[in-house]
Amino acid sequence: MLTLNFTKFPILETERLILREHDLADAEALFAMRTNETVMKYIDRERPKDIFEIKDFISRFRNGYENGDNLAWVIALKENPKQMIGSVGYWRTDFANHRAEIGYMLHPDYWRKGIISEALKKSIAFGFEVVNLHTISANINVENDASRQMLIKHGFVKEAHFKQDYYFKGKFLDSEIYGLINPDH
């Protein structure tokens, strides 16, 4: 049975990283990332207007976890676990079909250091081994080549290219869907 219900939030560790639960103390770091046009260039979501929107967003993350709907981690370096540098997590969980969509973002100061790769490897393993997902999907902006290459590096394959399926800021945008099937299924 697929479940995202845990008695305690699952904290994950890698060689350099700790993947932990979002906290309201992360609001400023998350606000800075969600309003940074470099970070958000290919993340077609409305930008938060103020810190209160981000605090509400964090509360929804936590509620989503408590309700077993999603599971999102803060990415932090082990040497500074309180400082959020990014996030990775599962959303849009399709329990009936054992699928979840993975998403990630990282502050530009930490780009090209293998951090997202390290966080993805650990969160994918958790999704398959602990959550028992059959498929992990990712939805990217077709212009986001860095994300595409990251997904391919981790074994994802392109499943679909949707033409103008997403409306954002007065334009219809294309989407690419990538998928990774649990090798043990």
TrEMBL record:
Protein's name according to its UniProt entry: Acetyltransferase
Keyword Kinase assigned: no
Keyword Transferase: yes
Listed GO MF terms: acyltransferase activity, transferring groups other than amino-acyl groups
Sorted UniProt keywords: Transferase
Highest taxon in the source lineage: Bacteria
Coiled-coil residue spans: none
Residue intervals of the N-acetyltransferase domain: 17-174
